[in-house]
């Protein structure tokens, strides 16, 4: 995720319904969407292209099971850094570029970044922590190791509260 702010202006109930369907099953056909939403295939196609062009749909991907690659070790690492001009961008990008890192979050509070990583072995994890510490400006790390992962639907549309949904559909209610 970049540092740019995206707005959901110009979305309507139909757009949200399309997004919910596509997010649930990216391989859903235009015909199935048209039937479910009582629209023509060309209307669905037009709306999907509009959502892609506006950046609401950022790509189409397949969910690959990391365990199929032996990537069973997940760690959550808090990273504290020296605060200098531009540090959040520079260090954040350096962290995100490391092999084994899945996600990087710039945070406010006791730590500056939270890094989620996934590797196969303890040796790989130790090497990754060494590479994190070697980044200029990184002062300290503290890692926790995930013992069990729970299934999370993790879709944007399923996490929308009713208030968020209303704000998208009627931005003047903010």
Please give a structural write-up.
The protein has 174 residues and is an alpha+beta fold. It folds into two domains: 10-62, Winged helix-like DNA-binding domain superfamily/Winged helix DNA-binding domain (Arc Repressor Mutant, subunit A), CATH 1.10.10; 66-145, Lrp/AsnC effector binding domain/regulation of amino acid metabolism (RAM) domain (Alpha-Beta Plaits, 2-Layer Sandwich). It is built from six helices and four strands, in the order αααβαββαβα. The chain is elongated, with a radius of gyration of 20 Å. The protein starts with 12 loop residues before the first helix and ends in a 5-residue tail after the last helix.
Summarize the structure.
With 174 residues, this protein is an alpha+beta fold. It contains six helices and four strands, in the order H-H-H-E-H-E-E-H-E-H. It has two domains: 10-62, Orthogonal Bundle (Arc Repressor Mutant, subunit A), CATH 1.10.10.10; 66-145, 2-Layer Sandwich (Alpha-Beta Plaits), CATH 3.30.70.920.
Defining key terms:
single chain; 174 residues; alpha+beta; Arc Repressor Mutant, subunit A; Alpha-Beta Plaits; 2 domains; 4-stranded antiparallel sheet; 6 helices; 4 strands; 36% helix; elongated; disordered N terminus
Morphology call: elongated
Q: From the helix content, strand content and strand pairing, which structural class follows?
A: alpha+beta
Mean pLDDT: 87
> What would CATH call the architecture of the largest domain?
2-Layer Sandwich
Strand line-up in the sheet with most strands: 2-3-1-4
Overall number of domains:
2
Elements, N to C (H/E): HHHEHEEHEH
Number of strands: 4
């Amino acid at each position: 995720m970049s540092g740019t702010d995206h707005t959901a202006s110009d979305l309507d109930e139909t757009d949200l319904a399309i997004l919910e369907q596509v997010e649930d099953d990216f391989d859903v056909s235009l015909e199935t969407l048209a039937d479910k939403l009582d629209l023509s295939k060309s209307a669905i196609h037009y709306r999907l292209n509009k959502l892609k062009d506006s950046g609401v749909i950022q790509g189409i991907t397949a969910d690959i099971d990391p365990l199929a690659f032996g990537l069973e070790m997940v760690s959550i690492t808090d990273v504290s850094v020296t605060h200098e001009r531009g540090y959040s961008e520079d260090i954040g990008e350096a962290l995100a570029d490391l092999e084994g890192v899945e996600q990087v979050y710039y945070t406010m509070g006791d730590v500056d970044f939270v890094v989620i990583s996934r590797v196969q072995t303890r040796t790989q994890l130790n090497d990754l922590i060494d590479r994190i510490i070697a980044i200029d400006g990184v002062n300290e790390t503290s890692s926790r190791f995930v013992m069990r992962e729970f299934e999370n639907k993790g879709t944007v549309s399923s996490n929308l509260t009713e208030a968020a949904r209303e704000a998208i559909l009627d931005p003047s209610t903010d």
